[in-house]
Amino acid sequence: xxxxxxxxxxxxxxxxxxxxxxxxxxxxxxxxxxxxxxxxxxxxxxxxxxxxxxxxxxxxxxxxxxxxxxxxxxxxxxxxxxxxxxxxxxxxxxxxxxxxxxxxxxxxxxxxxxxxxxxxxxxxxxxxxxxxxxxxxxxxxxxxxxxxxxxxxxxxxxxxxxxxxxxxxxxxxxxxxxxxxxxxxxxxxxxxxxxxxxxxxxxxxxxxxxxxxxxxxxxxxxxxxxxxxxxxxxxxxxxxxxxxxxxxxxxxxxxxxxxxxxxxxxxxxxxxxxxxxxxxxxxxxxxxxxxxxxxxx
Length: 297
Ligand SMILES: NC(=O)C1=CN([C@@H]2O[C@H](COP(=O)(O)OP(=O)(O)OC[C@H]3O[C@@H](n4cnc5c(N)ncnc54)[C@H](OP(=O)(O)O)[C@@H]3O)[C@@H](O)[C@H]2O)C=CC1
Ligand SMILES: Cc1cn([C@H]2C[C@H](O)[C@@H](COP(=O)(O)OP(=O)(O)O[C@H]3O[C@@H](C)C(=O)[C@@H](O)[C@H]3O)O2)c(=O)[nH]c1=O
Ligand SMILES: [Mg+2]
Known about the structure:
It contains 9 helices and 12 strands. By secondary structure, it is α/β, with parallel strands linked by helices. The protein has a 6-stranded parallel sheet with strand order 2-1-3-4-5-10, with helices on both faces. A two-stranded parallel ribbon has the order 6-9. Strands 7-12 form a two-stranded parallel ribbon. Helix 4 links the parallel strand 4 and strand 5 (142-147). The longest helix is centred in the first third of the chain and has 22 residues, at 70-91. The structure holds NADPH dihydro-nicotinamide-adenine-dinucleotide phosphate, dtdp-4-keto-L-rhamnose and magnesium ion. Residues 7, 9-13, 31, 34-37, 57-61, 76, 98, 100, 128, 147-150, 155 line the site of NADPH dihydro-nicotinamide-adenine-dinucleotide phosphate.
C-alpha cells in the first residue's frame, strides 16, 4: 500500500510519517513539495504519485490571522481538499482529511455529534467547513476526522505557548469559558493508522462507506484548566524548566479580545468512531503527561 501524506512538517503530519509506516510505503510531502495554496497543481501530483491512500494533514491553522486572510485560508482549507478529493476519486484512492470543532458555534450544551448542525463563527471555521463540503461533493471514498485543540512536543500549539509564557512571566490570564478536549497529535496519528487499516479492509470487502467522525481525547477541560495542567505536569515531568509563573487567573473570553471569535463549547462525542472502528482515545491528561515527558528527553 502506498500512502501519501501532506503537511509533513505539521503536528499531525509529522506524527503520521511514523505512525503509518507499518501500513506500507509512506511518501510525506511538506509545503515545498505539495503546496495547497496552488490547488491547480494537485491533480497532476496525485496522478503521478498514484497513492492508495491520501492523508491530508496540511492546513491553514492560524485562526486569528485567517480573519484578515480568509481568501488564502479558503483556498488551502476549502478548494485544495476538494481538488485532492477529485484526484483521489480519479486514482481510486481513499482520502483521509482532518477537520475541526470550529465548524460549530459552540452554543450546544452537550458534546456535538457528527449529525449536529454546523455554524462556524470565524474565517478558519468557514474555510474548514468548505473543505468538508467539497470532499463530500467529490464522491471519492473518504473519511473526515474532526479533532480539537491539537498539541504536540513540536510545532505551534497552546502547550508550547504556555511553557514559553510560564517561563517568562509570573502572572498569566487564561480564558476559562471555552470548553473542549486537548488532543495529542501522536494519538491522532496512531488512531488514523488504525482507521486506515480498517477502512482498507472494508473497501476490499465492498463494505466501505465514506463518513464523518469525531476524533478527540477522552475527557474535557477549558483553556484555563488546560494551562494549569500544563504547569502542574511540567513541574514534575520537566523539572529543569524554570517556571516563573505563580498565578494563572481564569478570565472570560470577553476579557481576552482576539481577532477571531471562538466557540464556547468545543466538546465532541466519540461514540461514532468507537462503534465503527473500535477506537477509544486516552484521556487528555495522560496524553499531556506523555508529551511533556517526551519534551524532557
Ligand atoms: N492545530 C489544532 O489545534 C487543530 C487542527 N485541526 C486540523 O488538524 C489538521 C492538522 O493540523 P495540525 O497538524 O495541528 O496543524 P499545524 O499547523 O501543526 O500543521 C499544518 C501544516 O500545514 C502546512 N501548510 C500550511 N499551508 C500550507 C500550504 N499552502 N500547502 C501545504 N502545506 C501547508 C504547514 O506548513 P509549514 O510547516 O510550512 O507552516 C504545517 O506543516 C488540520 O486539518 C487542522 O485544520 C483540527 C482541530 C485542531
Ligand atoms: C496565549 C493565551 C491564549 N489565551 C486564549 C485564547 C483562546 O481563547 C485560547 C486558545 O488560544 P490558541 O490561539 O492557542 O487557540 P486556537 O488557535 O484558537 O486553537 C484552535 O486552533 C484551531 C487550528 C483548531 O482547529 C481548534 O481546535 C483549536 O485548537 O486561549 C488566553 O486566554 N491567554 C493566553 O495567554
Ligand atoms: Mg492557534
